[in-house]
Amino acid sequence: MFLRYYLEETYQNLRQNKLRSLLTGFGVAWGIFLLVILLGVGEGFYRGVFRKFSGYSQNAIWCWGQSFKGKNIRFTLPLLNQLKAHVKGIEHVSPVNGGYQSYTLRYMAEDYDGASVKGVEVCYNKIGQLELSAGRFLNERDKSATRPVCVIGSEVQSNLFAKEDPIGKQINVNGHYFQVVGTLDKEASFNNDEHKAVLIPFSTFCKVFNWGTDFWNFRASLWPGAAAEAVEGEVRSYLASQLGFDQSDKRAVYIFNLGKQAKKFDDLFDGVRIFLWIIGGCMLLSGIMGVSNMVLVSVKERTQEVGIRKVVGASAKEILIMVLLESIFICLTAGMAGMLAGVSSIYALNKLLDYVDPAQELLIGHLELKMAAVVAALLLLVVCGAIAGIFPAKKATSILPIKALNTE
Question: At what angle do helices 316-356 and 258-301 cross, to 10 degrees?
């Protein structure tokens, strides 16, 4: 009952000052609108950057053997199995044989040069989080029977097969024939290398191309929650003890830690989010100052009214609530309007992004406003509205009835 009375009083007062209320409300709405857009764009860039990681586990390591005292560092399957057993943080590990030599592919009359042909284990798709657009990935039967089968990337598919279904077809790889059992989705790679890849069972690759069973590159994914830096240290320490190089010699074995890189991006975007909140907060502050000034002017114009209210028995608390509600009401209604406009704009921008970038290849992904940010912005509006009305409210409660009645 009392709240309804105060709201009606607030509404009537704002109606008497329409232009001033609208201009002040526009300032608040504009501030929250820009805050919403800034947060949405920030999340869009975050999603766009991490979309580049989507084709590879964000908690993974890539390891290359280099040289130590003039001797080339090479790995073997028994060593990898021992490494996985020794380092508890490793979930999957796969050798990568080849991949750095260009191959010529042929299907019917179509040729494709520059393909990246790799011999990998059957868990490679789990390490790479590779998704298939058709068919299946390599399996244990392919591995044990050294089957001449392969999974091809999207670029290989488009160049060799055009619109023809490649599953079950035979492709010629430097004179050797392999049956296509699966095709990788276009978004299935951390970089463009997988787009032009031909993935073959490791056992088949070694047998067909006479590469031998040793290799200089392997990749591993880590268990969820595993500390990337700690696992990297354990891997380097174990390899150093088994291969006889100094653990501190970074030239013997190079390790690229995707977990550390992903964490750097996370830290960077955490800083960007804070910066965007500060910018948006400054914009809101300018609008809030306008609300405070408007309410202050309103109190000054209603000095006699406040004095009369006090004479007829209104308490300081009632006067305080009346003024604070006016300030909160302006901030909340204008803020809701600005937020609605911001969310609508984000929706429209996402539609535009879908139109200009249907393949989602740009660095910016879909804009998104998280629910936590919406709730935080609403709470911020209410708090700011209350803060904006504190000084005018205090001024109103300090008005003496006798002086107020004598004011013209």
Answer: 140
The residues, any chain, with a CB within 8 Å of residue 141's CB and separated by 6 or more, are 147
Q: What is the pLDDT of residues 376-395, one digit of tens each?
A: 777 777 777 677 666 666 66
pTM above 0.90, yes or no: no
Residue 320 identity: L
Amino acid at 407: T
Domain borders along the chain are 2-53+263-405, 67-251
pLDDT in tens, 189-229: 544 578 888 999 999 999 998 877 889 899 998 888 888 88
Residues with Cβ within 8 Å of 24's Cβ and at least 6 positions away in sequence, in order, are: 287, 290, 291, 293, 294, 330, 334
Residue 237 near residue 253, CB atoms below 8 Å: no
The single-letter code of the amino acid at 332 is: L
Q: For the residues of 328-365, what is the DSSP string, one character each? A: HHHHHHHHHHHHHHHHHHHHHHHHHHHHH-TT--SS--
SS3 57: coil
Exposure string of 205-240, with b = 16+ CB inside 10 Å and e = fewer, is bbebbeeebebbbbbbbbeeebebeebbebbbebbb
Give the DSSP H/E element, type plus range, for residue 2: helix 2-16
